[in-house]
Specification:
The protein is α/β, with parallel strands linked by helices. Helices cover about 50% and strands about 15% of the residues. The chain has an eight-stranded parallel beta barrel, surrounded by eight helices. The protein is globular. The structure holds pyridoxine-5'-phosphate. The site of pyridoxine-5'-phosphate (PXP) has 19 residues, from strand 8 and helix 10.
């Protein structure tokens, strides 16, 4: 059954891969901070960037400049290490999203194992919350992880949509339907437990439109597809088209 209202769905634009392109050549161009400004002008509600341990794309000074130079909330993605917590406490972004990190992976491949690392993650949450930084945990839509996130005091989770998007891209309809079911049920469970629910990874126009219909989800964080698309149509047009896709999805919100 369709319902007619759901909270606004925010778009966080991840600018990591502008830095990837810059780093391929060295030097200063293209500048991820310029991309962040353009994305905001085009309708992004916030900017996301991931400072990885190996600094393969975003670097420390990018994060500091994003914090100082952009007029919308900055969402700092990072591993729950002492080094990264120290940097976040110095920069004081609006939000931190704790993600798992392996050096050998190409991108963030799975969700955080909150249930298996409660103490370590709870410690990082406490330090960040004390500095008034909103903390989210990037996790699979797995009830055990969602319950663990709520139990250790995380105010927000971000559901990893990567597996769903990959199954769709590979034409694996059965597996994609299973993941979709997990995401819907996971979002409902998280909201029931009082968590704010975000989602992201691997989203494009079609999948963002589809996921926008899940009413408990209030923020999508999208990077690789938008930066790739901007090579062809420009960043402003890509962000606007994404905003339109999300608005279309939100207009037929699922019960
Ligand atoms: N959310 C989180 C927590 C991520 O780690 C990433 C990738 O950095 C994204 C969203 C965005 O994923 P994508 O670049 O595939 O859109």
């Amino acid at each position: 059954m369709a319902v007619t209202t759901a909270p606004k769905l925010r778009l966080g634009v991840n600018v990591d891969h502008v830095a990837t392109l810059r780093n391929a050549r060295g030097g200063r161009l293209p500048d991820p901070v310029r991309a962040a400004r353009l994305a905001i002008e085009a309708g992004a509600d916030g900017i996301t960037a991931h400072l990885r341990e190996d600094r393969r794309h975003i670097r420390d000074d990018d994060m500091a400049r994003l914090r100082a130079e952009i007029a919308r909330p900055l969402n700092f993605e990072m591993a729950a290490t002492d080094e990264m917590v120290g940097i976040a406490l110095a920069i004081r972004p609006h939000a931190v999203c704790l993600v798992p990190e392996k050096r050998e992976e190409r991108t963030t491949e799975g969700g955080l194992d909150v249930a298996g690392n409660r103490e370590k993650i709870a410690h990082a949450i406490r330090l960040l919350k004390a500095a008034n930084i909103r903390v989210s945990l990037f996790i699979a839509a797995d009830p055990a992880q969602i319950e663990a996130a709520a139990a250790i005091g995380a105010p927000v989770i971000e559901i990893h949509t990567g597996a769903w998007c990959e199954h769709l891209a590979d034409g694996e309809r059965g597996a994609a339907a299973g993941e979709w079911d997990n995401i819907r049920k996971g979002a409902a469970l998280a909201a029931q437990l009082g968590l704010e629910v975000h989602a992201g990874h691997g989203l494009d126009y079609a999948t963002a439109e589809e996921i926008a219909a899940i009413p408990q989800i209030v923020e999508l964080n999208i990077g690789h597809f938008l930066i790739g698309e901007s090579v062809f149509v420009g960043l402003e047009a890509a962000v606007k088209a994404m905003r339109d896709a999300m608005d279309r999805g939100r207009a037929r919100v699922l019960a």
